[in-house]
Amino acid sequence: MMTLPIGLRTDIDRWLAEDPDAATREALRQLGDRADAGDDRALAELRSAFAGPLTFGTAGLRAALGPGPARMNRVVVGRAAAGFAAWLTGRGLRGGTVLIGYDARYNSDVFARDTAEIMAAAGFDAVLTEGPTPTPVVAFGIRHLGCVAAVVVTASHNPPNDNGYKVYLGDGSQIIPPTDAEIAAAIAAVAAGPLASVPRSEDYRRIGADLVNAYVARAAALVPQAAPRDVSWVYTAMHGVGAPVVQRAAAAAGFPAAVPVVEQIDPDPAFPTVPFPNPEEPGAIDLALDLARRSSVDVVIATDPDADRCAVAAPFPGPDGVPAWRMLTGDELGALLGDDALRREVPGTFANSVVSSTLLARMADAHGRRFTTTLTGFKWIGRVPDLAFGYEEAIGYCCDSAFVPDKDGITATISVLRLVSGLRASGRTVADRLDEIARTYGVHATGQLAVRVADLTIIGDAMARLRAHPPRQLAGRPVEVRDLQAGGDLPPTDAVELSGEWVHVVARPSGTEPKLKCYLEARVSQDASADDLAAARLSAATTLAHLRTEMATALGVDA
Prior knowledge:
By secondary structure, the protein is an alpha/beta fold. It has helices at about 5-20, 20-35, 40-50, 75-90, 110-120, 135-145, 180-190, 210-220, 245-250, 285-295, 330-345, 360-365, 380, 410-425, 430-440, 455-470, 525-530, 535-555; strands at about 60-65, 95-100, 125-130, 150-155, 160-170, 205, 235, 260, 300-305, 310-315, 325, 350-355, 370-375, 385-390, 395-400, 445-450, 475, 475-480, 480-485, 495-500, 505-510, 515-525. The protein has four domains: about 1-50, no CATH class; about 60-205, Alpha-D-Glucose-1,6-Bisphosphate, subunit A, domain 3 (Alpha-D-Glucose-1,6-Bisphosphate, Chain A, domain 3); about 215-430, Alpha-D-Glucose-1,6-Bisphosphate, subunit A, domain 3 (Alpha-D-Glucose-1,6-Bisphosphate, Chain A, domain 3, 3-Layer(aba) Sandwich); about 440-555, 2-Layer Sandwich (TATA-Binding Protein), CATH 3.30.310.50. It has a six-stranded mixed sheet with strand order 1-5-4-2-3-6, sandwiched between helices. A five-stranded mixed sheet has the order 8-7-9-10-11. Strand 17 and strand 18 (about 475-480) form a beta hairpin.
């Protein structure tokens, strides 16, 4: 019989004494018993769960549910709430309103209630949503309610057993360095003492209809009264919390009701129809596409589980005259929405992340508009002063920055419906509009090399290899290499950029998943695409394939 190492046994005993959740205490006891009995997998899980505290970064907290400091549970959340409250208090914000929302994942409601109780006891006006609420509605509520901060308990589109803890400041933005490190230090100070000593109070408020009504009214106002509204669409909520607000916002804006993907329209933390509830994952929107083919609609729209991201699929001309449905890339939808905002002369600066297509920059320049490139994530995009429209390739779009300076899948949905309705009224389709953009600005084809790993050292080794021996040519063309870790016009970040006249590549570790990502772009000049768009796109696709192979070699990973 195996005996647990003394240090690990001590850690387990301390955790059992701290944890207020009977379910995770029992899970921990069972893991300990299995490890004592010689179960190597149980021992590995224990070592992983107690390897160190879950890192609080610019994305807050996100991990698998379970016992231990490296997992999401009531101890970790309680410490995070108390630490965040202490940080806010240290900045003279005690007494201000803190809005707390949550999605429909396992334990999200419990973590949100714990946060409300701790914030209330710390002297804040804690306001907890009455039920599972889309992240953009909470982000909207920050300015609407005059909050000093907000918390959303969500793991967005992560696997079913994950959860997370996202924090916002009073300007409606997500946190960035050094604020993340300061809050992490406050959390560590709380963790040095017993969780039972953290005060709690049930003197918090609930909010529901008033907040949602205000958000829906604002979303509907994005559609001018004279705009066309004739559109048919399929909608899926991906088993998340978006459907009620999406449906209400569409109706308030005057659009016809969607044809819903019934199997995915209601919240379900098990996400039974998809292995990963991310519209970008292969197969995730197959049910929606099947329904679209049977329903003869104009467009398919999907929001991810917390409804801050939006994905779109549309019919394209097929070789036999039968429409071929496919999902748009994040960059294609970004180009459509960006072009629409430029045509409508939305005031302000246009922006996207460094891993997104360079097309929006070219479009903004052609219109004489300001453009800026940011680091990855809406914690950066949402902070662009006077933002007109911003997006990142991971299907995140900010279409109403004055009210939600964050990615928002619901207002993106309303914007897509307005766009498609307008195209339909003029006898055109999404495919037609993408062709027009390509003929005007050139083909900008994008793709990814993404490697999911079980061992995180693989990612570090791959990035070190790329930095040590970066390619000086890609797809037969010279490229300039820029290590974004060195900083410059962007804050330092763990990424390497390779740029040439016809190609653009950025390699970086994912910020939310155990993945190494390489973002690829191949461009074909405006003149070439005007002559033969199909040939230009084939040329760009061929270049993308070369980029994928060459970057896999440079990183030492499988393509």
